[in-house]
Amino acid sequence: MLFNLSACDHEISGVSPFTLANFLIQKKFGDHYILQKESNSSASHLKFKTFGRLSISELSYGSEVQLKIPPLGNFYHLQIILGGSCTWQCNGRHFLLRPGDSMIHVPSSEYSTTYSPDCKKLIIQIPKDFLQQSAREFGYLTSNEPILFNSTPVPFPNSGPAFNLLNDIIEQDGARLGDRAELYYAKLLSNAILNTYDSNLNQSECLSGPHHRHIELIRDHVMDNLTTDIPVDQLASICRISRKSLYNLFERETGLTPSAYIRQLKLETVHSELSNNRRVRNVTEVALKYGFTNLGRFSAQYREHIGELPSETLRRLERQPF
Question: Quick check: is 204 in a domain?
Fold first, then answer.
């Protein structure tokens, strides 16, 4: 891999694995428990930087090191192997990762990993709330459920948006860019990650594409309150415009009434939940959760907008392997 964290805030070399692990803990980069006796290593090396809401580490322990990583809590870790190899174990699954391989560790997962003496990793830490907000801004349906990624290693692309954005970020001096530019880069990288790795998110027709600022404001409010009844007058109040102006705005920008817009967002969220959430027991509980009390009408509206019955969506999830 050609990534080189050339612009960094901190650089440490020739210290023990425990010293490197403690540095990352102090930087709130996740707990790192080393399962071996302490040993000094002149080949160890760490580069670290913050970039807007992101934290980035280029790490090599310089010796074989076994680590236990508890759940990350409020962060995702995108890990890319730059050199050497490492093993990864989680929930009974075991993988060997080589240069170019990458994985995303989700906040709820606990895993163990073993670095080869020459293993070098690039790790990008992304706050959970930042990734969810970025996903929403780029047209993905999000809810209170965390974004889940496929836990199988995949090659990190060696060209394209994700590669170019990450290369720019690790080479840029954030102090020269400024806060707004850092935020912009970080959001673009989040979108590139969502486009690169399989997740439980679906894109929404209602959310995609640029919209008037009032539509954006309403979209965020609706997505934050999907399980409640949202009166149209409340939306007009949020935008500080009249009810008539609100209807005219929606007709011009979306071709929908405000109520139809809300209904489509709810239907697409129901579809996402029926497609991905294995804790769902039946269609009725999800329909009622999002305020669809007339189940016959709900099924008809769902079929018209999604293209199949909600029961068909749920059955397809049940047939998928874990």
Answer: no
The domain total for the chain is: 2
Burial class (CB in 10 A: 0-12, 13-18, 19+), 190: buried
Q: What is the pLDDT of residues 25-49, one digit of tens each?
A: 999 998 888 876 556 577 899 999 9
Which has more pLDDT, 125 or 16? 125
Q: Are residues 172 and 265 in the same domain?
A: no
Q: Please name the amino acid found at residue 137.
A: E
Helix crossing, 179-196 with 128-137: angle to 10°? 80
> What gap in Å lies between CA 263 and CA 305, rounded to an integer?
10
38, 11 contact by CB (below 8 A):
no
Measured CA to CA in angstroms, residue 321 lies from 46, 138, 150, 284, 308 at distances of 39, 29, 13, 23, 21
Which range marks the domain in which residue 155 is found?
10-196
Q: Which pTM value belongs to this model?
A: 0.71
**Which residue in the block uniquely carries the two structure tokens 């050339």?**
6
- Two tokens at 135? 């996903």
Which tens digits make up the pLDDT trace of 67-123? 998 888 899 999 999 999 999 998 888 999 999 999 999 888 888 999 999 999 999
Give the CB-side neighbour count of residue 129, counting CA atoms within 13 A.
Answer: 3
User: Which comes out higher in pLDDT, residue 47 or 225?
Assistant: 47
* Same structural domain, 230 and 297: yes
pLDDT greater than 60 at residue 187: yes
- Do 104 and 53 fall within a single domain? yes
242 within some domain: yes
Q: How confident is the model at residue 322 (pLDDT cuts 50, 70, 90)?
A: very low
In a domain, 275, yes or no: yes
